[in-house]
């Protein structure tokens, strides 16, 4: 097994308070890592440090064995993420949104765009402007946008939040496809174990900024432990 991402004593202090405290996280290539914790536990802050949106107060992040102190564009391109709620041009269709984003980012590629739309089951939704999309469709479009460059690690902050049961089911299928067909590694946060236990290979539990558990899902199932 190859470790794709590892954090060493990752720490973030805000207003003299340790929001994230010495987190040592280890994510294996190809797995779905469920990052669990109640609201305010520090999940988003950890993800923001990994994706370079926030500077760690202390600690290190290693991606494919390379320290991420000096993050190159190439390194960050290998990581896709949706940390904040994805924003689109409401009057444009899914395809138009992706094309515009691709052009703006300088990697417009029709085939990659069509593959991404197919993957999230939005290729048939042709004319509909995004303002008519359900929350689940918007989440899937956000994922399509994030995977157009075929990142090796995809980081999603609470993607299931607010979705109805059908939306959750559709999104889980997308996660499975990304993992099985594309071999992508996924880091997905949630505050409800039940939302991701069916798909996660490993669960990391964070509470008050401390990673209190990091266990294979099989072990959790056998122990029948309630973490959250
Ligand atoms: P949620 O699901 O509610 O977003 P979370 O586990 O993702 O929870 P974070 O968003 O990482 O938690 O927030 C952890 C704590 O850090 C919270 O108490 C939050 O108020 C605080 N926090 C986050 N960002 C900042 C900031 N920029 N300045 C000060 N405090 C912050």
Automatic annotation (TrEMBL):
The keyword Transferase does not apply. It comes from the Bacteria. Residues 5-228 form the ABC transporter domain. Keywords: ATP-binding, Nucleotide-binding, Transport. One of its GO terms (molecular function) is ATP binding. Belongs to the ABC transporter superfamily. This is ABC transporter ATP-binding protein. The lineage of its organism: Bacteria, Bacillati, Bacillota, Bacilli, Bacillales.
């Amino acid at each position: 097994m190859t470790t794709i991402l590892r954090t060493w004593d990752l720490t973030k202090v805000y207003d003299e308070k340790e929001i994230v405290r010495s987190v040592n996280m280890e994510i294996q290539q190809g797995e779905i890592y469920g990052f669990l914790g109640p609201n305010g536990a520090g999940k988003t802050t950890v993800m923001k440090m990994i994706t370079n949106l926030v500077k760690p107060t202390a600690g290190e992040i290693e991606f494919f064995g390379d320290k991420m102190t000096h993050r190159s564009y190439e390194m960050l391109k290998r990581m896709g993420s949706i940390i904040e709620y994805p924003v689109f041009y409401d009057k444009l269709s899914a395809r138009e949104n992706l094309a515009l984003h691709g052009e703006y980012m300088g990697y417009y590629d029709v085939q990659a765009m069509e593959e991404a739309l197919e993957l999230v089951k939005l290729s048939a939704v042709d004319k509909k402007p995004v303002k008519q999309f359900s929350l689940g469709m918007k989440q899937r479009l956000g994922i399509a946008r994030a995977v157009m460059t075929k990142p090796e690690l995809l980081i999603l902050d609470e993607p299931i939040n607010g979705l109805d049961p059908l939306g959750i089911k559709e999104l889980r299928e997308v996660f499975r496809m990304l993992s099985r067909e594309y071999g992508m590694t996924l880091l997905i946060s949630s505050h409800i174990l039940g939302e991701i236990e069916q798909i996660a290979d490993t669960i990391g539990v964070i509470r008050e900024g401390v990673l209190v558990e990091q266990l294979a899902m099989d072990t959790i199932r056998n122990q029948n432990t309630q973490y959250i």
